[in-house]
Amino acid sequence: MPPRRAAKAATADIPVVFTIGGDPVELGLVASFNRPGGNLTGLTQYTAALEGKRLEVLHELMPSASAVALLVDPGNPNIAVQMTELPTAARKMNLQLTIVEASTEREIDEALARFDRTKFQALFVASDPFFNSRREQIVARVAALAIPAIFHQREFAIAGGLISYGSSAIDMYRQAGLYIARILKGAKPVDLPVLQPTRFELVINLKSAKALGVTVPPALAARADEVIE
Question: What residues does 228 pair with on adjacent strands?
């Protein structure tokens, strides 16, 4: 059982502050964003809603890439949203998406080993908690295969990934700490709306770009929140 569901099942009285990447209403954690309706509240990165924008960033970085491989985890609760939003965004940009699935460490290696540079010019790694936990493995494998790839958290770019775009995990945890402090002072979760991300980060690793032979457009570099040299 996922920790969020375990916490909800364990108590109906003790306040719980969660941080998740999906829709807490669809996941059954709260009744609504504005009125959680129970002992749970918190923050969601809701990164699945950013997937289309992330694909636009990849297209801006590599406008000549027409075929993109999409690495997804079929066990991700956001998979339905990802599989709706990304193909829609791809069609608008005339991109061909090919879905590659992986939900274990072995499947990640096997999926990336099948990456064919004659068929795909770039890789899109979908937002996923499991992929977060295997960040070093994914970044190392992608680098070894010389695949231009985009990720959803700055930590991937810091680890050596080419580029990342998404909400700030650090800011989310800071906000969670503030919610905990308010609850300790007497606030009730039912009165604290679920917060969605307000800060988004674009991080570009120029070292990786140089190693891959990728030229970063000046306009994109100028918008970056962080450039790793």
Answer: 205
Q: Which tokens sit at 218?
A: 């000046």
CATH architecture of 49-166+201-228: 3-Layer(aba) Sandwich (3.40)
Nearest residue to 179 (alpha-carbon basis) of 30, 17, 3, 12: 17
Q: 3-class DSSP state for residue 202? A: strand
**pLDDT tens, position by position, 64-113:** 999 999 999 999 888 888 899 999 999 999 999 999 999 999 999 999 98
Distances (CA, A) of 14 to 4, 7, 10, 53, 185: 14, 9, 9, 37, 14
Question: Residues 158, 228: contact at Cβ < 8 Å?
Answer: yes
CATH number of 3-44+168-198: 3.40.50.2300
Distance between CA atoms of residues 70 and 126, nearest Å: 7
Q: Is the CB of residue 206 less than 8 Å from the CB of residue 227?
A: yes
Residue written as tokens 């936990």?
133
- How would you classify the pairing of strands 96-101 and 67-72? parallel
Could you give the residue range(s) of every CATH 3.40.50.2300 domain in the chain?
A: 3-44+168-198, 49-166+201-228
